[in-house]
Amino acid sequence: MSTALDLSSRQAATRAAAPPALPENPRIARQRILPASAERRGIPRGIRRMAGPVLLVGIWHLLSVTGTLPAEVLAGPGTVLSSAAKLWGTGELPDAMVASLRRALSGLAIGGSIGVALAVFSGLFRLGEDLIDSTMQMLRTVPNVALIPLLIIWFGIGEEPKIALIALATAFPLYLNVYAGIRNVDQTLVEAGRTLGLSRAAMIRNVILPGALPNALVGLRYSLGISWLALVFGEQVNATEGIGYLMSNAREFFQTDVIVVCLVVYALLGLAVDFIVRLLEKVLLAWRPAFTGA
Amino acid sequence: MATGLHGRMSATQNAAVSVRGLTRRFGDRAVIDRLDLDIAPGEFVALIGASGCGKSTLLRILADLDHEIEGEVEVPVKRAVAFQAPRLMPWKKVWRNVVLGLPGLPDRRRAEAALAEVGLSHRANVWPKVLSGGEAQRASLARALVREPDLLLLDEPFGALDALTRIKAQELVGELWQRHNCAILLVTHDVEEALLLADRVLMMKDGVIAHEVRVDRPRPRAVEDAYLAELRARLLGWLGVGHGAMEDAA
C-alpha cells in the first residue's frame, strides 16, 4: 500500500518536473491511409489486364514485319488474321469447327453418360462399389492417349476411334467426381431425410443427387477440358475433316498462319464451352450463397 | 439381442413412448444401461444431463436413427425431429423443405400455413442459406410440426442461438406445444429452459434416468419464480454444480 503511494507520488513528481512533452518529442514517422477509391484512379483494371496480351501481339507483329521472325517459323499476326478471314470465307473453317465440335460433344455425351451411370451405381449401391470402383480406379491410371493404337485396331481410322478416345477420356473425371460427390453428401442431411420419412428413391432424388451436383459440375468441367485434349490427339489420326485435318494439311505446306488460326480456334472453342458450364453452375447451384449476391 | 422399434401399441397402451431395459453400447461402454422411460401423450418432458451422458443418444434411438440397441422401445409412428443444426436441404426453397417427405405433390399452401405458425411466411420462397440462425431453426420447427406428430423430439434446438433469439424460440415452442398437443421430448443442457417449458424434468446419469422432478406450475412461467428457483438449485446439485451440490455433500 505504502509502496504504491510512494510510486504514484514519485510519478507525479517526475511529471511535474518534466517540461511539456509534446514539442520536444521526436517526430513520429506517419503514413496516410488512403481510401480504396483513391487507389482505384488511373487506368481501369480491365484495360490493364488487356495490356499484356496486346503487348505480346505487338512484339510478335514487330518481329514479323522486321523479318526477325521469318514466316516459315511463325506467320505474323496480320497474315494470321487475313488467312482466318479467307478460311472463314471459303467455308473451310466453319465446316472444320462443326466437325470438331460434333466429335467432342458426341464423345463427351457417350463417355459422360457412361461415367455418370457407373458413378451413380457404385455410389448408391455397395455391390456397385465393389464391382466398379476398384476397376475404375485402376483403369484411370492408364494414359488415354496410349490407347490410340488399340483404338485404331478396334475401330479403324474413321470417326469411331476419335469419338471412342474422347469418350474414354471424359468418362473418368465425371465418374470420379460424381462418385465422390455422392459419397460425401452431408450425413446430417441424410439423417434429417430419414426422420422426414423419405423413401430410398425420394432420398436419392431429394437429398443425395442434389448434394452431389456441385461435384458433378466440377467433373463436367474437367471432362470438357480433357475432351479438347483428346480431340487434338484424335484428329491427328487420318482425319478428313475438322480442325485437326486443317492443321495437318497446313503442316504439309508449311502454312504456319493456318496452324496458328487452328490453335486460336481450339482455344476459343474451349473458352466458349467453359463459359457454358459456368452459366450452368449459376443456374443449377443458385442455392449456394456465393451465387445469390451477384 | 437387438430389438427394433414397433408402432404404438401393446405393453403400456396409453403411453406415447415406452422404453424398457434399453441398453446402447459403444464398444465395452454402455452409454445407456437398462434405461426405462415413459412419456404420456401430450406430455412435455425435458431431458438434462452432463455432456456425454447419453441424452442425445437416447433421442437418436427414439428417432429411429440408431438401431444398435438392446431392450424394448416403442414410439409413435407419427414423430418428428428438430436437431440442433436446422438441417434444411440447402437446394430446396424454404417452403419445399417444410413439406419434404409428405405424401403427394409439394403443397405450398400447407407449407405456408406451417410457416405462418412460426412467423416465417415472408421467408417461404427463399433459399435456406439466406436465413438467419433463428429463422432457420423456426423453419426446422415448422417442418417438424407440419407432420402433425404425436411425438416431437427436440435435440438442443436452441443451443446455437443467441440469448435473445433463444428466449423467443422457447416461448414459441411453448405456444406450439399447447396448440398441437403432442408429446415432446426436449434434450437440453439448460436447466432453466427445462424448468420453463416442461411438465417433467428428467436427469440422465450413468446410463439411466437418475432423477426426476415434476414442475407443477402454470404457464407462462418466469425464471424468477421462487419454486422454480428451488427446483433449479436441486437439479444443479444433482448435476454437481451450484449451492445444491454443497447441501448434498453436507
Automatic annotation (TrEMBL), chain A:
Residues 97-277 form the ABC transmembrane type-1 domain. It holds the Pfam family BPD_transp_1. InterPro entries: MetI-like, MetI-like_sf. Coiled coil: none annotated. Residues 1-11 have a biased composition (Polar residues). Residues 1-21 are annotated as: Disordered. Gene3D superfamilies: MetI-like. PROSITE patterns: ABC_TM1. Its main location: membrane. It is a multi-pass membrane protein. The chain crosses the membrane at residues 50-71, 104-127, 139-157, 163-182, 258-280. PANTHER family: ALIPHATIC SULFONATES TRANSPORT PERMEASE PROTEIN SSUC-RELATED (PTHR30151:SF38), ALKANE SULFONATE ABC TRANSPORTER-RELATED, MEMBRANE SUBUNIT (PTHR30151). This is ABC transporter permease subunit. The lineage of its organism: Bacteria, Pseudomonadati, Pseudomonadota, Alphaproteobacteria, Acetobacterales.
UniProtKB/TrEMBL annotation, chain B:
Residues 17-231 form the ABC transporter domain. Pfam families: ABC_tran (PF00005). InterPro entries: AAA+_ATPase, ABC_transporter-like_ATP-bd, ABC_transporter-like_CS, ABC_transporter_ATP-bind, P-loop_NTPase. Keywords: ATP-binding, Cell membrane, Membrane, Nucleotide-binding, Translocase, Transport. The keyword Cell membrane applies. The keyword Nucleotidyltransferase does not apply. Transmembrane segments: none annotated. GO terms for molecular function: ATP binding. Belongs to the ABC transporter superfamily. This is ABC transporter ATP-binding protein. The lineage of its organism: Bacteria, Pseudomonadati, Pseudomonadota, Alphaproteobacteria, Acetobacterales.
